[in-house]
Amino acid sequence: MIEKTAFCPFCMKPLSGDDGKNGSAACIFCGKDAASYKTSSHHLPPGTILKDRYLLGGVLGEGGYGITYIGYDRLLQNRIAVKEYFPIEFCTRDTIGGNSVNILSGISAKNYAREMQKYLTEARLLAKMEKQRVIVNVRDYFEDNRTAYIVMEYIQGITFTELTRKSGGLCGGKDARAYIIDSAKYLCYD
Question: Structure pTM?
Answer without folding.
Answer: 0.83
